[in-house]
Amino acid sequence: MGFISADENAPSVRNWTKTRDMLQGLPLDWKRSFPAATLLEAETEIALGNRAIARTMLMQLADDPRISDQVAEILQREPFDN
What we know:
The protein has 82 residues and is an all-alpha fold. It is 63% helix and 0% strand. The chain is built from five helices and no strands. The chain is flat.
């Protein structure tokens, strides 16, 4: 999935919007099996400024041992409003 990420040096809303649209189109059962897809979707929402949506997505992943370390790092790094 890394190939679809926008270049960090020149991010554009268009690239992030395309990424979000693609990720939202993935089947939910598949995303449950591969939580990294939802993690990438949350990162995309952060890039688009949708922090409340991203925080909700991250909190749903927080207890998943396959990805909890990455979730914790993002939650610590990003300035989410409580």
